[in-house]
Amino acid sequence: MDRFVTRRRAQADQPSGNIDDSREVVEEPPEIVGVDSNGSAAGGESSPPQQAKKTDKPLPFMGMKVRRRANLLRECNGDYIDVPSDPYLSRILRKQGDGKVLFADKVLRFTGTGKIKRRILLITDLAIYIIDPDSDVLKRRIALAAVDKLCMSELNDDFFAIVIPSEYDCLMASTRKTEIVNTLLEATKSKSEYELEVFRSNR
Questions:
Q1: What is the largest CA-CA distance in the chain?
Q2: pLDDT band at 12 (very low <50, low <70, confident <90, very high)
């Protein structure tokens, strides 16, 4: 019995280096690890969050023109190609006695044979101008008084048609279709107090 007491006392009295007794040893409480709703551990050293995998799959309606809230918030600038800075377009308007540009932008025009032509559409307070952007040649001038009505489909597309009873109709497409139609309505009403009819049909 004495030999066991002697050995225990020797271990207790044995110094373990220079120990500063003035420092108070505080035991840190054990860290509580919980489990979140996904079944992964929460708290402590967690694994870094994984980045979302990039996929090439497009989002719904991406790249499609769906007339929705985007068109309602879109600002209308009127002249999108800066007509005054283009000497050819300015000269065409001066020859026709026009100067006030209400709308100007590049559009697509569809011919009777189904061909697609890139054109510049100019709308003034007197007429509609269709110009070839490559040759800067005036292809057609339509007086606002000659326009009978405008046709659009009931779908969310970019197509619209200008109906002229005395001439052939003009079918075009533009992402600014709504602004073009509103400009024609306001220009016609301000000059002749006649409001154009907007006909909607999918036929």
A1: 129
A2: very low
Q: Is there a contact between 124 and 101 (Cβ–Cβ < 8 Å)?
A: yes
pTM score: 0.64
- The domains located in the chain, with CATH, are 76-200 (2.30.29.30)
pLDDT digits (tens, 9 = 90+) for 144-156: 999 999 999 888 8
φ, ψ of residue 65 in degrees (nearest 5): -90, 105
Q: What pLDDT is stored for residue 63 in this prediction?
A: 42
Listed residue (49, 66, 42) closest to 157, CA to CA:
66
Q: What's the pLDDT band for 191 if we cut at 50, 70, 90?
A: confident
pLDDT confidence band for 71 (50 / 70 / 90): low
The 3-state secondary structure of the chain reads CHHHHHHHHHHHHCCCCCCCCCCCCCCCCCCCCEECCCCCEECCCCCCCCCCCCCCCCCCCCCCCCCCHHHHHCCCCCECCCHHHCHHHHHHHHHCCCCCEEEEEEEEEECCCCCEEEEEEEEECCEEEEEECCCCEEEEEEEHHHCCEEEECCCCCCEEEEECCCCCCEEEECCCHHHHHHHHHHHHHHHHCCCCEEEECCC
Torsions phi, psi of 11, nearest 5? -70, -35
Determine the Cα–Cα distance for residues 115 and 111; give it in Å rounded to an integer: 5
C-alpha span between 72 and 195 (Å, rounded) = 22
